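Whiteboard transcription, Tuesday session. T.W. wrote the C-alpha cells on the left side:
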C-alpha cells in the first residue's frame, strides 16, 4: 500500500528535505519517513506538493510524458485581454521551445490565506487572477508564460495535481492518504 502525503507548501520553503544554506525545507513540516516529492515547486511559489513512497506513482505524477493535469492560480500584474489569454491557451514560444496548449482563463480572486511576505502592492496597477491548467512541467513555466504575454506573475499557487487539491489544507499543513 502506497503512502501519499498532500502538503500545502508555504512561500519560501524548498521542495526538498535538506538545504546546505539552512533554508526551510520539507523536513521542517513533514515528519513522515521515506516519502519523496512528485516534482518540484519553486521556493517563491505556494501550494500543493504531493509526496509518496511509491516510485511508480512518483514517476507517473512527475514525468511530463504522463501529462498529469496541474492547476495553478496566478495573480498577475495588469489586466490581460482576450488575446493574451488565447496565447496562453494555445501555447507560446519560450526560450526552451513551444509550450503545449493549456487551460487558461480569468477567475475571481480566490479565497486564499494571506501570503507572508505579502506581494508588492501598487495602487496605480491593478492585478488579475488567472487559472492555468498545464500538462507539462517546465522550470518556472507559469511565470515565464505570463511574462511572455506581458503580465508578470506576482503570486503563484498550485491548487491541484492529478486527482488531489488543497481543499481544507492550511499553509504548512499536510495530510496522509493510503492507496
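and on the right, the sequence the group agreed on:
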Amino acid at each position: 500500500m502506497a503512502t501519499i502525503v498532500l502538503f500545502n507548501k508555504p512561500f519560501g520553503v524548498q521542495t526538498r528535505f535538506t538545504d546546505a544554506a539552512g533554508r526551510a525545507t520539507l523536513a521542517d513540516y513533514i515528519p513522515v519517513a521515506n516519502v519523496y516529492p512528485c516534482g518540484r515547486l519553486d521556493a517563491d511559489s505556494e501550494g500543493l506538493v504531493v509526496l509518496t513512497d511509491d516510485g511508480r506513482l512518483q514517476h507517473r505524477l512527475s514525468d511530463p510524458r504522463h501529462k498529469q493535469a496541474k492547476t495553478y492560480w496566478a495573480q498577475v500584474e495588469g489586466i490581460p485581454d482576450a488575446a493574451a489569454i488565447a496565447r496562453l491557451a494555445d501555447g507560446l514560444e519560450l526560450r526552451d521551445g513551444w509550450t503545449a496548449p493549456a487551460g487558461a482563463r480569468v477567475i475571481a480572486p480566490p479565497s486564499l490565506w494571506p501570503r507572508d511576505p505579502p506581494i508588492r502592492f501598487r495602487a496605480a496597477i491593478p492585478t488579475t487572477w488567472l487559472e492555468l491548467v498545464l500538462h507539462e512541467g517546465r522550470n518556472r513555466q507559469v511565470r515565464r508564460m505570463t511574462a511572455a504575454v506581458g503580465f508578470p506573475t506576482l503570486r503563484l499557487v498550485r491548487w491541484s495535481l492529478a486527482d488531489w487539491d488543497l481543499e481544507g489544507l492550511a499553509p504548512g499543513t499536510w495530510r496522509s492518504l493510503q492507496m
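Someone added at the bottom: The domain at 69-161 is CATH 3.30.70.1560 (Alpha-Beta Plaits).
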